[in-house]
Structures are given as structure tokens and as C-alpha cells.
Amino acid sequence: MNATFQINGLVIETERLLLRPFAPSDLCDFYEYASVEGVGEMAGWKHHESIEKSQEILDVFIKEDKTFAIVLKENNKVIGSLGIEKYGMEHALTEFDGYQGREIGYVLSKSYWGKGLMPEAVRAVIRYLFDDLHFDFLLCGYYDFNIQSKKVQEKCGFKPYRKLVMDTRMGTAEPGVLNLLINPDKNISFVFSHPETLIYQ
To answer: Which residues constitute the domain of residue 30?
Structure first.
């Protein structure tokens, strides 16, 4: 089942990054990376064609308080986002009944791809969710065309869980993989449903 989560002012620090709540002053940095064609599309949403669109999404980030701004410490610039989202199909995925988890989603500025920053951020969030909040599991997905995201999830310990056709926010559906990470400190053995899409080993 979907765990309760809010950032509540939390700041997570890594070697190169700060993960913190979004603020109104982040608008220009947010628009700078979200307006680049190919950034949002890798995550299933259309790049922002106006700063007003970025303002609209930023307002949602601030109100819902479940998406971290990824800040590069060396220049204090917001270079991406990492959301702790509710996963879909909650009632269908009965293996998670009685267990607490969420789905992670992320986007990084194209200028910073290939530097190992996204795995650094994801690992830090995993540690917090497992060690401090004691989540039982996390989900994270990627579209088949997004090889970079696949590699990030592999580096962070996620394992292929289901082969699905996943909706985008552009009115299309694309084949992809939903990955699963189980808290290693818990002795959990899920009884999986829906074998027709299951690829977990």
C-alpha cells in the first residue's frame, strides 16, 4: 500500500548535492532544465514551452510537498527533481497489501547527464526511506527508450518487477519496466499477483 510521505522541510545532503523542498525562488532554474526538449520526454512529460507552465508545476511541487529539488552544492543551482510518488494500480498489486512503499520518479538537467549525480541522489533517498521511515519497498519505472534511467535504477539495486505498457502525460502509452527494491533489513517474501506481467526473479 502507499505509505504516507511529506518532505516537511527535510534536507538530505550527499557529497555533491542537497535534496530539499522546492521554493518559489527556484522557478528560473526549474524552467531552465524543464524547457529543454528531451528532458521531460524521457520521463513521459512534454518539455515546458513557457515559464508559466513551469510556474504551474512548481506550485504543485510546493503544495504537495513530496518532490525534492536536486541542488548542486558547488553553485547552489537546482538541476533536477526527485519525487516520492504514490504508485498506481494499488488495488491490483495485492502483493503489497499490508506493506508500506512508494514509487520514485526523477528528472535531471541534460547539462548534468553522465556524471553519476542521479544515482547519488536516488541512493540517498533510498537510505532515508528505508532507514529512517522504514518503508518496506520502493518502485521505480522507466520507458524502454530511456536506457539512462534503466542504468540509474540498476546501480541503485532495483530489480525488474513487471513488464508493462505505461501511460505518459502526453496522451500516449509506451512499453517499459517497473522495478522493485525491497528493504534489505526486512525479511519480506511477497506473494506476487498477475503473473502475465511479472518478470521478478
So the answer is: 12-182
| 188 located within any domain | no
pLDDT score, position 45: 81
Q: Is residue 198 part of a domain?
A: no
Q: How far is CA 10 from the centre of its chain?
A: 17
Please classify residue 139 by burial: count the beta carbons closer than 10 Å to its beta carbon, then call 0-12 exposed, 13-18 middle and 19+ buried.
buried
Name the domain count of the chain.
1
Q: Average model confidence (pLDDT) for the chain?
A: 95
Q: pTM for the complete prediction?
A: 0.94
Residue carrying the nine cell digits 520526454:
41
Residue 18 in any domain: the answer is yes
The answer to whether residue 173 sits within a structural domain is yes
Q: Dihedral through CA 168, CA 172, CA 176, CA 180, nearest 10?
A: 30
- Residues 187 and 9: their CA atoms lie apart, in Å, by 31
Within 10 A of 200 (CB to CB), how many other CB atoms are there?
14
DSSP code, position 140? E
Nearby residues of 137 by Cβ (< 8 Å), 6 or more positions away: 96, 99, 100, 101, 180, 181, 182, 183, 188, 190
Q: Which of 80, 82, 78, 67 is nearest to 25 (CA)?
A: 78
CATH classification of the domain holding 49:
3.40.630.30
What digits encode the pLDDT tens for the residues 81-128? Answer: 999 999 998 999 999 999 999 999 999 999 999 999 999 999 999 999
Amino acid, res. 141: G
